């Protein structure tokens, strides 16, 4: 054998040996400490992040695992045989990986699960429409976003939950919104990027709700012109970390955080000294972050460590000129969030809504607010009009899982305040609000509203 052939053969054997070691170590459940990420081809053009949906699911994406400290070029492709795969999400014990993927270009996106002990993959959802952004619930079930239709624009995505084998699928959000990029906070609530699509397109917000779909409410709203780029991640310091587009440059992502207890009044930039753009982030067990970052648009997004205490980038972990690196997560055990009890009772077809005072509002205007008329609107039009009590309170019984908007009007039918955000009540749910467009962090006055001294006013589902 010639020297040249001998060198080639030796190199081949070395590569084969390394691959066997990689695969063998993975099958022995030793991916702990590895980092799983989405790699997106650099040939995919920079997207319009204001769209909120299409840019997150690029053709040719793949899930890759790398071990910190090894060569930057060494990696294990986890989704061989898939046309595209993205959105990795770990189980709390670090043993299973949920992701979004499609085998063929023409397939709808579906939810898949990988056993990190033996690297086996099985399909969870088998829908004719797109199913995206899966995440584990504390109960062991899965929450994901499911489109109302596959191709009809604009695509409405609502939240569903199911078992890990795809059984017992249940819808848990019911408004005309696009709910995407969900995650679980340690208090057990879901946090999802939500955008109203009807009757007009609204701004993106973080919406918080319980895993059974109850108690949905505004959690965080970006500054005017800002857009949320993905999941909010809760840290050990009870802060929610996320990426929001810069007000100066919509294609630049800022690394921000809010206090979980006061999200509307605690926004801060964690990386004011870092000039480039962030794309996604997650917390490592030791407390530092994994971040997708690039210095300028001419570069691909690379994977770095980030120190939230100093606000500076740390070690470069992965950088490739042919792929962006997004959605990093380290394989490890994580704290399991609280499992919230559910008051949903499917045998009760209605829910109850109590408002303490329609005149209490953050909105300052010159309109006479002495009128106590309240209108309830559905997607098809006016569902009912009631007279609030003298103290401004009202008490309604509304068909469950029916999205409604509330507005106050004067005697001529002119809108005083509203419409509210879309509200829905799950079967047997009881909800309350302080006022009309009142501060969501406002504690209600300690008094008994007059409306509760009477039976609730029933609002028919189909007027």
Pick out its properties.
32 strands, 2 domains, single chain, 39% strand, mainly beta, Neuraminidase, 4-stranded antiparallel beta sheet, 463 residues, Immunoglobulin-like, 5% helix
Could you give a quick summary of the protein structure above?
The chain has two domains: 33-330, 6 Propeller (Neuraminidase), CATH 2.120.10; 350-459, Sandwich (Immunoglobulin-like). The chain has one helix at 3-27; strands at residues 35-41, 62-66, 76-77, 84-90, 96-102, 110-115, 120-123, 131-136, 142-147, 157-162, 170-171, 177-184, 190-196, 204-209, 217-220, 233-234, 239-245, 253-259, 268-269, 277-283, 289-294, 302-307, 312-318, 323-330, 350-357, 373-378, 381-387, 394-399, 405-409, 415-417, 430-435, 457-459. The protein has 463 residues and is mainly beta.
């Amino acid at each position: 054998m010639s020297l040249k052939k001998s060198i080639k053969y030796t190199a081949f054997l070395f590569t084969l040996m390394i691959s066997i070691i990689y695969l063998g170590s993975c099958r022995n459940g030793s991916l702990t400490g590895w980092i799983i990420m989405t790699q997106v081809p650099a040939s995919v053009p920079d997207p319009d992040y204001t769209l909120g949906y299409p840019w997150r699911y690029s053709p040719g994406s793949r899930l890759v695992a790398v071990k910190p400290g090894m060569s930057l070029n060494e990696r294990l492709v986890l989704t061989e045989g898939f046309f595209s795969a993205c959105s990795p999400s770990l189980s709390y014990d670090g043993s299973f990986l949920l992701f979004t993927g499609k085998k063929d270009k023409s397939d709808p996106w579906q939810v898949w699960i990988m056993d990190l002990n033996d690297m086996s993959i099985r399909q969870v959802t088998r829908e004719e429409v797109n199913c995206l952004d899966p995440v584990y619930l504390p109960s062991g079930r899965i929450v994901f976003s499911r489109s109302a239709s596959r191709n009809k624009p604009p695509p409405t995505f609502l939240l569903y939950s199911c078992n890990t084998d795809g059984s017992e699928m249940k819808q848990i959000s019911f408004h005309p919104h696009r709910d995407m990029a969900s995650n679980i906070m340690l208090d057990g609530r879901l946090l999802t990027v939500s955008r109203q699509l009807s009757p007009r397109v609204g701004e993106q917000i973080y919406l918080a709700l319980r895993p059974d779909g109850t108690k949905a409410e505004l959690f965080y709203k970006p500054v005017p012109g800002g857009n949320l780029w993905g999941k909010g991640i809760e840290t050990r310091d009870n802060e929610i970390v996320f990426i929001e587009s810069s007000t100066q440059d919509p294609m630049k992502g800022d690394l921000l955080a809010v206090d979980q207890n006061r999200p509307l009044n605690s926004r801060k930039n964690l990386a004011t000294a870092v000039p480039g753009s962030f794309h996604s982030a997650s917390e490592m067990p030791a407390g530092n972050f994994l971040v997708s970052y690039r210095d300028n648009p001419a570069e691909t997004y690379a994977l770095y460590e980030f120190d939230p205490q100093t606000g500076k980038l740390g070690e470069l972990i992965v950088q490739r000129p042919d792929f962006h690196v997004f959605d990093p997560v380290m394989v490890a055990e994580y704290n399991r969030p609280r499992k919230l009890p559910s008051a949903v009772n499917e045998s009760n077809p209605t829910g109850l809504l109590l408002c303490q005072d329609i005149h209490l509002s953050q909105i300052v205007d010159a309109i006479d607010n002495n009128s106590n008329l309240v209108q309830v609107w559905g997607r098809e039009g006016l569902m009912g009009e009631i007279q609030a009590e003298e103290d401004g309170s009202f008490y309604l019984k509304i068909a469950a899982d029916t999205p409604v908007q509330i507005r106050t009007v004067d005697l001529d039918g002119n809108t005083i305040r509203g419409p509210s955000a879309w509200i829905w009540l799950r079967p047997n749910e009881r909800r309350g609000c302080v006022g009309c467009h009142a501060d969501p962090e406002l504690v209600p006055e300690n008094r008994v509203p007059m409306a509760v001294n009477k039976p609730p006013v029933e609002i028919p589902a189909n007027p």
